[in-house]
Fold this protein.
Amino acid sequence: MSVFPPWPQSPRLRRVFLRDLVMLADIGVHPHEIGVRQRVRVNIDFGVQDEPGNGIGRDDLSRTVSYERLVQLVRGLIDEGHVRLVETLAERIAAGALADARIRIVRVRVEKLDVFDELDCVGVEIERAQP
């Protein structure tokens, strides 16, 4: 099941995704959340331009964006310390992804998993694009 709505029709983009990265993060605004790591789930979709002439069909690593770099980005941001808002973490992830000019658009979902017993999660989903 796709987390995000379809990409725009133009430009033609190759969708790359990271699904259900679950980590412990020091996140939250309430006193009982500060200094306590809680589970967050991160999903990232990003679009890389997929136009004729950029090597479509070539099995060439230079055409790709590293999944590992984005996982390390998320790990690094979480390891930096306390963040008050899931929105802030999502914005930082999006900005880090867009630092790679090949990424034209990014969608980030950050969810806190253990906030309410009766809910699977609470969170935010954002979309950002290159200017």
User: Anything to note?
Assistant: The beta strands are 13-26, 37-49, 103-112, 122-129.
